[in-house]
């Protein structure tokens, strides 16, 4: 069911379209709804991926397993409580393996059997990195299952040892600590508070030029969850170094790293308008615009990067200052926005129309007699951009058609004034 958009509809004389003060609030509501829908669409595939993570062969803790023992749950309990380190390892490994089954792993059964406390105790076995690895992987899969299981691991005290494992010299151990913390942070705002303050500096310390791409993807996924608006937000001391790293990662070549980087920027700028200025100061606007210009729509990764970049730009438009919007315009944002109106994703098209509308309206209302109008009016009429927007009035999707009609009607007089001003300034 399509959401109601109170400031959109068939235009006409005397129609109330809402004030400038109302529109950003409605835009933010729309953006949150779209973001939630995108996150829900990815949830099932993320759960599947979390259970099936292969180890990095270069790590000492990931030696090839030549023999493993299949155990029943009672045998696992007995093995984990044994004094023999080898029995503990075999039991933890058996638990991890059954929890890594592709379909319907017996998570509830193992939790009810009381395996979590022993697995958490194994996380502190610094003398046995292979045991830490198996325990961290098992807890990653448990926390990926449901909110109930995530709550169980948090209540059991898994967070602190997992954060400590972020400093492990063994990459596989560290990787699964990152994944388990990401599963926890992504499950809900009530869990983010227990890890955000201590985990962020440790996560940032893992990022370097030599960080393997697959590992970097996991780190950025967890960091993006810690930036979500719902619940506690990162403290200011953590935000500044994070923004510095995010601005560098916007130049990364991996599409998944770029997705999570854009997503983190989007979440941060949604949380606090003050962060918008910090992001602008990092000079990332041109790069965000560049990421929106990719024409590789046949490659899912590139399209996802574009969508995440759009969300970040939407926050600049709805929460930024006039100067920041002008910087966006000067960065060339209008052309890629108009080009994105032809993509098949209807939610993205509607979001892009909203961005264009707010960008044009705010600038034209605030700068009716300044040269910046030329940077709006002339480029909109060049290359048929305005014609492409007008064509959407007849789109088969009713919400897109009504959004376009309302947008053109709201801006109609302003566009005429801007055109006259632009023509007069050239005489």
| Poorly predicted tracts of residues | 1-24, 37-66, 413-427
Share of residues in strands: under 5%
The shape, in one word, is: elongated
CATH superfamily placement of the domain at 38-44 and 71-234: Leucine-rich Repeat Variant
Q: CATH top level of the domain at 38-44 and 71-234? A: Mainly Alpha
pLDDT averaged over residues: 75
Number of strands: 0
Distance between the first and last residues' Cα: 51 Å
Return Rg in Å.
25 Å
Looking at CATH, which topology of the domain at 38-44 and 71-234 would you report? Leucine-rich Repeat Variant
If classified by CATH, what would the architecture of the domain at 38-44 and 71-234 be? Answer: Alpha Horseshoe
Region (Disordered): 1-29
GO molecular function: nuclear import signal receptor activity
ARM repeats: 114-157, 157-199
Domain IBB: 27-93
Structure in words:
By secondary structure, the chain is an all-alpha fold. The protein has a domain at 38-44 and 71-234: Leucine-rich Repeat Variant. The chain is 68% helix and 0% strand. It has 22 helices and no strands. It has helices spanning 22-51, 73-80, 85-99, 107-112, 115-122, 129-143, 147-155, 159-164, 171-185, 189-205, 213-226, 236-249, 255-271, 273-281, 285-291, 300-319, 322-330, 334-339, 346-366, 372-381, 385-391, 398-426. Helix 3 (85-99) packs parallel to helix 6 and helix 13 (255-271) packs across helix 14. The model is unreliable at 1-24, 37-66 and 413-427 (pLDDT under 50).
